[in-house]
Amino acid sequence: MIPESFIQELLARTDIVEIIDRVVPLKKAGANYAACCPFHKEKSPSFTVSPSKQFYHCFGCGAHGTAIGFLMEHQGLSFPDAIEDLARHCGLTVPQEDNERAFRKPAAGSEEGPSLLDVMLKAHKYYRDELKQSPRAIDYLKRRGLTGEIAARFGIGYAPEGWQNLRPLFPEYDSPAFQTLLKAGLVIENDQKRRYDRFRDRVMFPILDQKGQVIAFGGRILDQGEPKYLNSPETPLFEKGREVFGLPQAREACRQTDTVIVVEGYMDVVALAQHGIGNAVATLGTATTTTHIRKLLRMVDRVVFCFDGDAAGRKAAWRALENSLEALAEQKVLAFAFLPPEHDPDSYVRDLGKEAFQAAIDRATPLSEFLLQTLSSHVDLTSAEGRAKLLAEAKPLLQKIPTPMLRLQIVKQLADKTGLQPSEVERGCELSRQAAHPNNTPVRAPRHAPSILRRLLRVLVQAPELASTIKPSLTNALPTNDPLANSLNRLLPHLATNPQPSELLERLRGSEDAPLLAEIFASLLSEPLEKDALSAELAGIVAQMERDQLDTELAVLQQAAQRGSLSAPEKARYAELLQTLQQLGRTGRRR
C-alpha cells in the first residue's frame, strides 16, 4: 500500500502542465492550457489542463483526471507504476514500509497483521512464481494459444495442487485470531475449524480495481472438473456486481475504438487480447448489472455484449438487456453479438481470426431490435391475445428506459406490430405522465432541485474550508432517494479535510461519486466562480435550501390539514411555518 499522505505530497509537488506537455504540446488559453485531445481524434482543441486545479478534462470525449490518471490512461501504467514515474520526476522515493508489512511476521503478542490488499498482493506474487515452476500449467496456456507476454500483461498465475500451499507464506495461517485470509477469500474454514486453500490446481487470473490493485481472483481448472471457473467470494475489497475483469488492460483500446466488448469468461478476454482485440472485458461469475453498464458507458459510447449463440448465451444476453435499460443514455449504443452455438469468443477468434470476430462485433444487433425480436418470438401476432401479450411484456421494460427518443422509437415499432397508434401504446404501457400519475395520486412534497445541490458542490470543491460550516441538520434532511443528495453527504467528510482538487479526485478514484466530481470540476474549467464571491454564494444556497425544507414540511402538513388529521402540536407547527414563510416574504408553498 502506498500511504495516502505520500500521494498528497506527490500531487502537491507535481505540475500537471509539465507532465502532460512532455507528450502533448500545450498552448496557453486564458487561465488554462489547451491541446487537441490525445484520447480521441479531433481537429479543434477541446482538451483543457488547469494548472490551478491540477486537473485535465476533454470537452469532446470526457477524458479527465489528475497527473496520475493521465499517466495511467495515456501511458497504460498501473496505479503503482504511475506513482513511481511521478515520484522519480519529482525526486521522491515511494515509501515501502506498508508494502513490506505484508511480508513481516507480526511481533509476538501483537495483533498486527497484513491488510487485505497486502494479502492479495502477496498471494498474487506467489501464484505468478508458481506458474513459472509448473510445466503443466505453462503447457495448458500454450495450448490455448497464449504467449508469455500476454500472460504477464494479465498477471496470470497458477495455484498448485494441495490443500495448504499458502500456509508457508503466512505463519498465522492456522491462528484463530488471524482472519485476514478468510476475509480475503483465499482460505476456507470447515465446520471442524480446519483451514484450507480455496484455489487448488487452477490457472489464476487476478482481478484489479481502478488503481491496478489486486482485489480478487478467478481460477480456471486445467483439466476436467467442476466448477470450471471458481471466483473469489464477495469481500470488503470485492463486489461482483461492480467489477469487471480486464478493464485496466482494456482501457486504452476502449478509448481508441470507443467500444467495449463484454464477454463471459476470463479466457475469452485474454484470447481476444492475444489476437489484437484489446477492448474486451468480462463479468465475474454474475449477470451483467446496471452498475457494470454505467461504469462502461462512462468510458465509451458503444457497449457490445458478445455471448454464445446457444440458449444459455441468449438467456444471459436477455438478463444483460433487462439490467441495462435503466443505464441507457442519449447517444449511447448497446448491442448484442451472437456467435455460432459451437463457439465462444475464445474458440471463434482462434479458429476464424481477428477480422472475422471484428466483423461479428460490427454487425451486432442493436438493443431495440433484440428486445423486439425476443418479445415477438414467443407470441402470436396474428391474434389479439398475442398482440396484447406483446404489449404486456414490453410494458415493464419500456418503463425502465430513461431516454425519451429511444423509447419513442420502440413505441412506434410496437405500434406497427400491434396495429395501434403510438399514443395508444403509450397509454397502454402507462408511459405518459397522466397514466403514470393518476389524479388520485397524493401530492408529493417538493424535492430539492438538483441545481441547488450542484451549486453547493461547485462552491465547496473550490472552497472546501467552507464545508465545515454546513449544518448536519441541513444535509440530513435531504431526500434519501436523491442520488445527488447521497453523493453530497458522502463527499462532505472528504471536503472537510480541505483537500486540493487533484488530491480529492485521486482519493475518490473509482468510487461511485468520481464521475460527478469530475463533471463539477470540468464545469469550473469553463465557468469558474470568483474566489471572493464563494462565501456569499454559499450563504445564498444555504438560505434557499433552508426555505425549501420549510416548504417541504409545510406541504406535508397541508396534506394532513386537507384530510383533517392534524394533531394539536402539528397545528401549532403549521401556524409557525406560515408565519416564518411570510416573514421571509413567501406565501404558501414555492411553485
TrEMBL record:
<dbReference type="GO" id="GO:0003899">
    <property type="term" value="F:DNA-directed RNA polymerase activity"/>
</dbReference>
<dbReference type="InterPro" id="IPR006171">
    <property type="entry name" value="TOPRIM_dom"/>
</dbReference>
<dbReference type="InterPro" id="IPR019475">
    <property type="entry name" value="DNA_primase_DnaB-bd"/>
</dbReference>
<dbReference type="Pfam" id="PF08275">
    <property type="entry name" value="DNAG_N"/>
</dbReference>
<dbReference type="InterPro" id="IPR034151">
    <property type="entry name" value="TOPRIM_DnaG_bac"/>
</dbReference>
<dbReference type="InterPro" id="IPR016136">
    <property type="entry name" value="DNA_helicase_N/primase_C"/>
</dbReference>
<feature type="zinc finger region" description="CHC2-type">
    <location>
        <begin position="37"/>
        <end position="61"/>
    </location>
</feature>
<dbReference type="InterPro" id="IPR030846">
    <property type="entry name" value="DnaG_bac"/>
</dbReference>
<dbReference type="GO" id="GO:0003677">
    <property type="term" value="F:DNA binding"/>
</dbReference>
<dbReference type="InterPro" id="IPR002694">
    <property type="entry name" value="Znf_CHC2"/>
</dbReference>
<dbReference type="GO" id="GO:0008270">
    <property type="term" value="F:zinc ion binding"/>
</dbReference>
<dbReference type="Pfam" id="PF08278">
    <property type="entry name" value="DnaG_DnaB_bind"/>
</dbReference>
<keyword id="KW-0479">Metal-binding</keyword>
<dbReference type="Pfam" id="PF10410">
    <property type="entry name" value="DnaB_bind"/>
</dbReference>
<keyword id="KW-0240">DNA-directed RNA polymerase</keyword>
<keyword id="KW-0808">Transferase</keyword>
<dbReference type="InterPro" id="IPR037068">
    <property type="entry name" value="DNA_primase_core_N_sf"/>
</dbReference>
<protein>
    <recommendedName>
        <fullName>DNA primase</fullName>
        <ecNumber>2.7.7.101</ecNumber>
    </recommendedName>
</protein>
<comment type="similarity">
    <text>Belongs to the DnaG primase family.</text>
</comment>
<dbReference type="Pfam" id="PF01807">
    <property type="entry name" value="Zn_ribbon_DnaG"/>
</dbReference>
<keyword id="KW-0548">Nucleotidyltransferase</keyword>
<keyword id="KW-0639">Primosome</keyword>
<keyword id="KW-0863">Zinc-finger</keyword>
<keyword id="KW-0235">DNA replication</keyword>
<keyword id="KW-0862">Zinc</keyword>
<comment type="subunit">
    <text>Monomer. Interacts with DnaB.</text>
</comment>
<dbReference type="GO" id="GO:1990077">
    <property type="term" value="C:primosome complex"/>
</dbReference>
<dbReference type="GO" id="GO:0000428">
    <property type="term" value="C:DNA-directed RNA polymerase complex"/>
</dbReference>
<dbReference type="InterPro" id="IPR050219">
    <property type="entry name" value="DnaG_primase"/>
</dbReference>
<dbReference type="InterPro" id="IPR013173">
    <property type="entry name" value="DNA_primase_DnaG_DnaB-bd_dom"/>
</dbReference>
<dbReference type="GO" id="GO:0006269">
    <property type="term" value="P:DNA replication, synthesis of primer"/>
</dbReference>
<dbReference type="GO" id="GO:0005737">
    <property type="term" value="C:cytoplasm"/>
</dbReference>
<comment type="function">
    <text>RNA polymerase that catalyzes the synthesis of short RNA molecules used as primers for DNA polymerase during DNA replication.</text>
</comment>
<keyword id="KW-0804">Transcription</keyword>
<dbReference type="InterPro" id="IPR036977">
    <property type="entry name" value="DNA_primase_Znf_CHC2"/>
</dbReference>
<dbReference type="InterPro" id="IPR006295">
    <property type="entry name" value="DNA_primase_DnaG"/>
</dbReference>
<dbReference type="InterPro" id="IPR013264">
    <property type="entry name" value="DNAG_N"/>
</dbReference>
<keyword id="KW-0238">DNA-binding</keyword>
<dbReference type="Pfam" id="PF13662">
    <property type="entry name" value="Toprim_4"/>
</dbReference>
